From TrEMBL:
Membrane-spanning ranges: none
One Gene Ontology MF term: metal ion binding
Protein name as catalogued: Peptidase M12B domain-containing protein
Organism encoding this protein: Pleurodeles waltl (Iberian ribbed newt)
UniProt-annotated binding residues for Zn(2+): 180, 184, 190
UniProt xrefs under Gene3D superfamilies: 3.40.1620.60, Collagenase (Catalytic Domain)
Keywords, ordered alphabetically: Disulfide bond, Extracellular matrix, Glycoprotein, Hydrolase, Metal-binding, Metalloprotease, Protease, Secreted, Zinc
A Gene Ontology BP annotation from the UniProt entry: proteolysis
Domain of life: Eukaryota
Length: 281
């Protein structure tokens, strides 16, 4: 295992590929900054696929995208995703089982990440949420191939045993999967699930049930904004009030399209033999 860091009520939500009452938004949550100290773990399949020399830059690119998604003004709150620890698993880790069954993998990862999290919130590598990245095909609810991309605990943020999620690498769209699962951790339901934000021919949102590959940027629906504001107003994000130590990992800010051209983006998503088709009717 490579630990990349500078010296010094069980309910789950799945994300697949394919009426909130109106109220005044509390100024407490929309004006107060929150810092989500994040542990990212990449499994052996991620390293094998991207290569040990390239995987770190790829993960930094993804995390930059996730940070940008949470900085989108449609979320209505000041939330910063801060990478405090990156673990690259070059071999199987004892106590962590990453298998096709997404439910079992989530349970295993949540237990494992709690065991490696320093208990003191003041520790520079203490995390508020843990994110697993895998190239393994995961599936929730069945032991056969399906379109599941991620799995997390609903409203699990700041609960040490439930503030964790698993995400299947799908190329640069992985950033939207991570943001989606983190949204569930903040208590956000799918758009159209017991709310009036179902997408009917309109542009999909971050919390849509399915990931739509589109060139337009995804945003947060007004339902998502209200869910997360309510979560924070109730004090459920209490662990996010402290800014991280200065040892926070700061990847270089490089636009994904600069680091990965369209051909490389196709390969990240569809495999090494894929290429961008420039002439499509």
């Amino acid at each position: 295992r490579i630990n990349v860091f500078p010296e010094q009520k069980r309910q789950r939500e799945t994300f697949v590929k394919t009426n909130v009452a109106s109220r005044k938004i509390s100024q407490r949550s929309v004006s107060k900054e929150r810092w989500v100290e994040t542990l990212v773990v990449a499994d052996t399949k991620m390293i094998e696929y991207h290569g040990s020399e390239n995987v770190e830059a790829y993960i930094f690119t993804i995390l930059n995208m996730v940070t940008g998604i949470f900085h989108d003004p449609t979320i209505g709150n000041a939330i910063h995703i801060m990478l405090v620890r990156l673990i690259l698993l070059e071999e199987e880790e004892q106590g962590l089982k990453i298998i096709h069954n997404a439910d079992h993998t989530l349970a295993s990862f949540c237990k494992w990440q709690k065991s490696v999290n320093p208990k003191s919130d003041a520790h520079p590598t203490h995390h508020d949420v843990a994110v697993l990245l895998t190239r393994k095909d995961i599936c929730a609810g069945m032991n056969q191939p399906c379109e599941t991309l991620g799995l997390s605990h609903l409203a699990g943020m700041c609960q040490p045993s439930r503030s964790c999620n698993i995400n299947e690498d799908s190329g640069l769209p992985l950033a939207f999967t991570i943001a989606h699962e983190l949204g569930h951790s903040f208590g956000i339901l799918h758009d159209g699930q017991a709310n009036d934000c179902e997408v009917n021919g309109r542009h999909p949102y971050i919390m849509s049930r399915q990931l739509h590959y589109d060139t337009s940027p995804l945003t947060w629906s007004h339902c998502s904004k209200e869910y997360i504001t309510r979560f924070l107003d109730r004090g459920l994000g209490f662990c996010l009030n402290d800014a991280p130590a200065k040892t926070e990992m700061k990847p270089p800010i490089i636009a994904p399209g600069v680091l990965y051209d369209v051909h490389h983006q196709c390969q990240l998503q569809y495999g090494p033999n894929a290429t961008f088709c420039e002439e499509v009717d």
